[in-house]
Amino acid sequence: MAVSFDQRDGEIWFDGEFVPWKDAKVHVLTHALHYASSVFEGERAYEGEIFECDAHTDRLFSSAAAMGFDLPFSREAISAAKRETMVRNNLSDAYLRPVAWRGSEMMGVSAQKNTIHVAIAAWPWPSYFDPALLEKGIRLAISDWRRPDPRSAPCHAKAAGLYMICTLSKHEAEAKGYQDALMLDYRGQVAEATGANVFFLRDGVLHTPAPDCFLDGITRRAVIDLAKARGIEVQERAIMPEELGTFEECFLTGTAAEVTPVGEIGPHSYVVGDTTRGLMTDYQALVRPSSKARAAA
Questions:
Q1: Active site residue 113
Q2: Which pick of 102, 140, 150, 184 has the fewest CB atoms within 10 Å?
Q3: Which class would CATH give 131-289?
Q4: What pTM was computed for the model?
């Protein structure tokens, strides 16, 4: 049985100090637990280097601002703490989780006087999906839950509350034998998976939903650049569910998912073709320092 995440060994950076993993605790009346006043990042490190470390730090600050609070540390301090967390836990390839939240001074919707806390944890996490599934691609259900209107939620923040419907969607999909779920947006357009952006290939052109009500992922942007470097046209646009059966290939992108091929979305099937495989290879070459060094030699 896997070790519970509150019982792991190691150290967590907590409000500027390293504490034993099991001692990194918050009170049951923490505002974030009751009112979702929390933001976070998901990051990967490869061979000791955190991919797009500063870009993730910048997004953490932007998310906090969208939630109406300021982080009590500088950008430089947060990025340095992430790197030190890797060192203190003797990690090379790892997943990192910086998180910031409102504390316990006020309990109610209004919480202007609550202390803002920040923590950073890191642990080994080789693959988000079972590698055995990648040859044929993972299977996605189509969720009944939808990404919200930007007028009803801070949809461009990586805020904890926005992931409630992702958990509901993924649990329902897994109960039906799928690995994940495709979510539509409030208009009924294709949006994203529960924790990753989505791309489709048709006639040599990549199509991906314009991120106007969900995160424009850091991995998403990196893969768009890789595709353009290969001479592949990328169209960011509104994609309707009726189009799902017209595409040849499909894949997800995200820090955890990296580049993950998709074999099915509901009744629609896709091949894991040359474009998807090529971008999977390109992405690994991008994120791994040893690959960069070999390419430069």
A1: no
A2: 150
A3: alpha beta
A4: 0.94
